[in-house]
Amino acid sequence: MPMFQPEIETLPRPKLQALQSERLREQVAYVYERVPFYRRALDERGLKPSDIKGIEDIHKLPFTKKKDLRDTYPFGMFAVPREQIARIHASSGTTGKPTVVGYTKGDLDIFAEVVARSLAAAGGRPGMMLHNAYGYGLFTGGLGLHGGAERLGMTVVPVSGGMTERQIMLIQDFKPEMIACTPSYAQTLAEEFKKRGVSPEEISLKYAVLGAEPWTEAIRKSVDEGLGVQSTNIYGLSEIIGPGVSNEDVSEREGLSYIWEDHFYPEVVDPETGEPLPEGQIGVLVLTTLTKKAMPILRYWTGDLTYITREPGPSGRTHARMAQIRGRTDDMLIVRGVNVYPTQIEAVLQEIPEVVPHYQIVLTREGTLDEVELRLEVAEAFLRSVGHQALSQEVVAADPRLSQLCEKVARKIKDNVGISLRVTLLNPGAAPRSEGGKLKRVADLRKL
């Protein structure tokens, strides 16, 4: 596939590493002089900027964690005076104060550049129309994708999230070739088109850029088939820059996304010890910004679980690739002493054709015992095949084929994930749906 910046995206590894080393040295000296948090952190380790000779020394630097950003709220991590900040974004702040991030004009140029690279990798071309259904506002998704699409030369429809009726109308009337949204919302749109009798062949969309929440190959398949697109994964987080840290190439779609390593240096470390892990081994993704000036970040502990490889990809790009996120360390559920990630359960469901990957995990506790209920939609074709229009508890209890399906799902999850749970079958469309934002698949009602 054509690239936005082929001279950078295919830079030989020795030259890329030399560029990373130069930029890391400059970044460490920059934050030491400008950010009190980093001066203290380096002093506590007995480090001076001159101790960092190259990218091979990055492990000497301290980690930065989300708590550090909250402790310095709102502007304590900024490396430039507030008057030089061109834009401010922030996380949702659902667990207290939000994490605040700032951008200089130069940072916004970098933001647009890496998103343009990502959209080009995803199939975007100058002159195409992007239906941007990421939320605008403090969330980095909407404005981030917008700026990158304009840099690439695309026409942007800034529809934002929600208002599904309007989304359907605009897609049918404007006929965009590409859509950007969360994977769960892409599923919602696919279902709405189906309800209206609009086949995938009648939808103008050809490419979907999906991110902001973990997703699986089962979801990719349902989106591709439902919207008639080729979907790719875009990865990012506001603390680093926003969307555009990495993206899959649409010609590959192997679940590996290219990280734009000239701007963001990736590591994978052990979740318990913080020690670097070899390529191919799953651990916590750690990212260092090499070029950001408003709010540079050293070794940011993302909490996202993945692995990386530096083997060149089929597209000819030389930058490292990261696997799709397996889950987050803070999304991990501990159920009767077993560590469980929702994506593990989703991967099991992918192998069961009688159900679809629309579900909710509900956790409760009676006394000291955790109880897990998996509320799971059945596939419409299966429901028809067993001769039912709709499900109820009485119908499930009376039909051995339905009760056997519950047992089958529970057994496969027990065998693959290691937890016992109760399966409740739902009618098609009954599980929670995304209305444009991130979908919450877990309801933890335990009082721990």
The dominant shape is globular
Overall pLDDT confidence: 93
Assembly of the depicted chains: single chain
Radius of gyration: 23 Å
Query: Which structural class do the helices and strands define?
Result: alpha/beta
What is the name of the CATH superfamily of the largest domain? ANL, N-terminal domain
Largest sheet: 9 strands, mixed
CATH class of the largest domain: Alpha Beta
Number of strands: 21
CATH architecture group name of the largest domain: 3-Layer(aba) Sandwich
Cα(first) to Cα(last) distance is 50 Å
Question: Uncertain regions: pLDDT < 50 for 5+ in a row?
Answer: none
Order of the strands making up the biggest sheet: 4-3-5-6-7-8-9-14-13
CATH topology assignment of the largest domain = Rossmann fold
Share in helix:
25-40%
> How many H/I helices?
13
Instruction: Estimate what percentage of residues fall within beta strands.
Output: 15-25%
Number of domains: 2
Summary keywords:
single chain, 448 residues, alpha/beta, Rossmann fold, GMP Synthetase, Chain A, domain 3, 2 domains, nine-stranded mixed sheet, 32% helix
Any overview of this molecule?
- Residues 79-287 form the AMP-dependent synthetase/ligase domain.
- Catalyzes the activation of phenylacetic acid (PA) to phenylacetyl-CoA (PA-CoA).
- With 448 residues, the chain is α/β, with parallel strands linked by helices.
- It has 2 domains: 1-330, Rossmann fold, CATH 3.40.50.12780; 332-444, GMP Synthetase, Chain A, domain 3 (2-Layer Sandwich), CATH 3.30.300.
- 32% of the residues lie in helices and 23% in strands.
- The chain contains 13 helices and 21 strands.
- The chain has helices spanning 6-9, 13-34, 36-44, 66-71, 105-121, 140-152, 164-174, 183-195, 217-227, 342-349, 380-385, 393-398, 400-417, and strands at residues 87-90, 100-103, 129-132, 155-157, 178-181, 207-210, 230-237, 242-247, 256-259, 264-269, 283-289, 300-306, 308-309, 321-323, 327-328, 333-335, 338-340, 355-366, 369-378, 422-426, 442-444.
- The strands form 5 sheets. A 9-stranded mixed beta sheet has the order 4-3-5-6-7-8-9-14-13. Strands 10-11-12-15 form a 4-stranded antiparallel beta sheet.
- Strand 6, helix 9 (217-227) and strand 7 form a beta-alpha-beta unit.
- Helix 2 packs across helix 3 (36-44), helix 5 (105-121) packs across helix 6 and helix 10 (342-349) packs across helix 13 (400-417).
- It is globular.
- It starts with 5 loop residues before the first helix and ends with a strand.
- 43% of the residues are buried.
